Structures are given as structure tokens and as C-alpha cells.
Amino acid sequence: MSRRLPLNGTGHLVSFARELRELQERSQGTVESAIVLGASRTAVYEALRGSRLPSVRNLDLMVQAWGDGGPSERQTWRERRRSAEEGLAEAARQRGKATAGRTPEEEDFTRRLRDLWGRAGGPSTERVARHCALSARTLDSYLDGRTIPTEQRLRELFDGLSEACDDDSGWLASARESFLGEVLFRARVARKEEKDRVKELTSALPSGQPAVVYRPLPDGIGTVPGVRLGQLFDSRATLSRARVHRAMQAGITGTADRGAESIVVSRGYEDDEDYGDVIVYTGQGGRDPHSGEQVKNQELTLGNAALATSAATGSPVRVVRSADRGYRYDGLFKVEDYWSEDSRSGFRVWRFRLVSLPPGGQVSVAAGAVADVAAGQDVTPSRMVTAVQRIVRSTAVANYVKRVHDYACQVCGVRLESPNGAYAEAAHIVPLGAPHRGPDIVGNVLCLCANHHVLFDFGTLVINDDLTVVKRSDSSVVGQLREAAGHEVDRSRLREHRVRHGFWSDGDLH
Questions:
Q1: End position of a domain, from candidates 49, 64, 94
Q2: Which of 89, 102, 115, 357 has the fewest CB atoms within 10 Å, i.e. is most exposed?
Q3: Residues facing 462 on adjacent strands
């Protein structure tokens, strides 16, 4: 006689499990047939028993094993799963119990872990478990996205995966450090913030507060449906629930891969400058948690790296400002520039110049529209793809430098021909205007092709005093900057460019 598992007063799991068992019986499929495709054994049994909903990945594999496995059938079962999940959440809410959902950072961790597992040859969890202190069931839970490991457990996972890897596993060492220092860190911070949000929400649920329902954008970037420009929020918790700014403490929400979703301008940094439509925002990190004073240099990681990605892609960032009675949503801004400099306290900080988008741009969803196009879907007229737009100035000095080099790029030597003649761009080493106020003189200008102009402006390429051109990502030498009679490059401006992009030593980069 089978044991009936408690379903917490709801029939959602029971109904879903019954339909799944019927699918299996109609196809005369077995549990093993789903496991062979890569499904977790534990997840399959729990789904059939009605004790837990399977992850989307495991559900897709079960449908593939027991049905036709086509996109239409997978989508139907995903909708059934979503309906059951919402029913469980509603039942929990009515009992005065809020439930925490998975954050985008946790989804990103799980996706990256699966990709890494596949790159290692996709060994079975039982095989990896034989080489580390973790059980196959625990490994399944990480790959299914049901749980996020601690730092120690992730190290053990990498040890086991390295031993089970068929090929040279040396690359796993660097991948492990990236996972520990960035991917896992972001996921665990987001999990804590989500738990804090749920804890705060729980106190209000028994009095009859409606369930928090939100439909976040696929990448979290752009306007949030239902949130109007200038809307006030009484706390960081309400900002998080509305998905305007998900982080409960950090001033920047986002990742280096997708870009920044939102920032909070709260006058927390002494170097912040707020001019209304233009904000010079100081990045995160390096402050004493108790005194709030800057005590060390900031790094171009985490939220700072997310804002740098937004500058490169042109995707908009939501801006929230602290107000007299909480926080105010002030719309979408574009990250036009970023650089590093000495703060008032003497430590290096990253600074970001954000400019408000015009009213027509406040409804844009840059990366979301790109995702729709990639998926083969129509992009509605209310969405538009934004891009970085650099100012290419034409001055007497710039034209002189281009003529001296015969319109050939000083980095690659390419001379572009157009119907109107040769084309090159003048790149100011130290940008003109505020906040850099570089001079419009020959020594502060380079003649570059469009590609190398972009790379130089973003600090992807830097130039040493000996004019060697260095790639920022791996410090490899790309080549030698070409010189010409009548054009001497100001080395002090090159050093200023290196410092602005995070190379704080006065020496050359090797």
C-alpha cells in the first residue's frame, strides 16, 4: 500500500502528478527512459508521486521520453506546471505564508553550471559523486536548480567533476574561481535578498494583502509594466516587490553579462553628482560597512561591471532617487561614459555618467527586443532597440591629424575608402568637455578606424608610453601605434587614459 504524501491542503500537485502518470502510461514509458535522456532520477519519482514539481528542464526530458517531445507539447506541459506552481503559491498566501521565488541570478547560476557540466563531458551525477563528498541526489538538486550550493560544496563539486572529466581538466580551475568569486556570490546575495523580501511580506499577508504578482521582463531591463514615471515607493522592500530595483541593499542591480537593470541614487557616496537629467554616479564597493567611508579602491566587478556593459550595449538603466518619503522612480537613463579616478578620500573609484532618455525612449526595452528577434518573434512597435552613439567631432585639429596619417588607422593601418573619399575617425585620448575636459590639441588626438575607435573609447585597448597597443582582457600586445611626421602623441594623455580605465599604476601595462 503506497504512502500518501501530505499536499498541504491543495490538489495542485496531485492533479499535475496524475496527468504526468497518465502521459507515462499512454506511452508505456519507463522512468529509466527519462533518466537516459538526462533527467534526475529523484526529480522523476517525486514528480510522479506528487511530492514536488519538476524543474522545467526535467519536465522537458520527461515529455521527450513519454510524448512526441515537440515544442507545442513541451509548451503545454510548461503551462500546466506554471499553473500548478501559481496554485501552490496562492494556497500558501491564503494560509498567511509567503513563498520565495527563484531570482534571475539563481537561474543564471544553474544555467552556467549545466553548461560547464556539459563542457566537462556530461558525466552522470553518480559518477561525479564517487569522486567527492557530495551525493548524486545533492548534485541533481544543483543541476535542476532546486538548491544553490555553499562555497565549500561548490568546491567539492568541482573536485569531483575534475576527477570524472574525460579530457584535460585544467580549465576547470579557472572556471571554479569565476564561479566562486562572481556567479555563486551573485546568486547567494540575490537569494538572501529574496528571503528578506518574503519575510517582510509575510507580516502583511494574514491581514488580507493581495498576492504580489509581477511579470518581470526576460532580462529585467527596461520599463516595468504598471510602474509610472515619478511613482513613489515607501521603502526598498516595496521597490523590490515591484521589481523596479530588486536588490534590498545594493545600489546597483544587474550582472556583467546582461548589464545593469537599475540603480538607486541616495547620496550615499560623497562623489555623486546629480544634475537632474544628468547623473555622475559613483560605483559600488570599497566602503567601510559601519562608517560608510571609502577605505579601499573599487574594482570593475559586480554592479560596476554591469554598468560598464550597459555603456557598451546602450541598454537603458532604471534610475530611482531617494525622496523625502521613500524612493521615487525617475525613468530610464543611458550610461554614456565611465572611468576611474581618485575619490575625495584618495581611493580609486569608478564613475558613470548617465543621461536621461527623452520621453519617447522611456518605453524602450533594448535587450528584450533583441531577445524577441532571436526567438523569431515579432517585435511590437512599442519596443525599440537602442545602441551606443558616440560623438565623432570634426575640428581643425582632428582633420589635421587624419590628413597627416592619410586617413589610415594608427593601430591596424587600414585606410577605409568611401564614395566620398577616405574615411577615418579622430579619437580624443582624453575626451573633450565635462567631466574630463581634455584639450583639443594634436597630441590628444589619434587617427583610428571606427572599430579601434570604439575599442579605445571603452578601454578595451590601451596604449603604453612606448606606443605598444595592449589588449585589456589578457594584456597581450596587439601591435605598435603608427606615428607620422608632424604628429607627436602626448604620453601624459595616454597615461591618463590608462588610469581612467582602471590601470592605476604609472608604469606601462605588460
A1: 94
A2: 115
A3: 470
CA triple 487-493-496, angle to 5 deg: 160
**Which has the closest alpha carbon to 416: 452, 388, 465, 381?**
452
Do residues 322 and 251 share a domain? yes
Residue 220 lies in a domain: no
Q: Is the pLDDT of residue 226 over 60?
A: yes
**Are 347 and 265 in the same domain?**
yes
Q: Which three cell numbers stand for residue 125?
A: 551525477
Q: Report whether pLDDT(447) > 90.
A: yes
Interval 4-34: pLDDT, tens: 333 443 577 888 888 999 999 888 889 998 8
Placement of cell 529585467 in the chain: 220
Residues 185 and 260 in one domain: no
Looking at the whole model, is its pTM more than 0.90?
no
What Å distances lie between residue 259 and 220, 250, 403, 457, CA to CA?
10, 15, 38, 18
Whether residues 339 and 255 fall in one domain: yes
What gap in Å lies between CA 369 and CA 364, rounded to an integer?
Answer: 9
Specify if 32 maps to a domain.
yes
Domain boundary among 374, 406, 422: 374
Please provide the DSSP assignment of 253-313 as one string. Answer: EEETTTEEEEEEE-S-STT-EE-SSEEEEE-S--B-TTT--B-S---S-HHHHHHHHHHHH
For strands 259-265 and 317-323, give the pairing: parallel
Question: Taking the CA of residue 6 as centre, how many other CA atoms within 13 Å lie in the half-sphere pointing to its CB?
Answer: 2
Residues 243 and 370 in one domain: yes
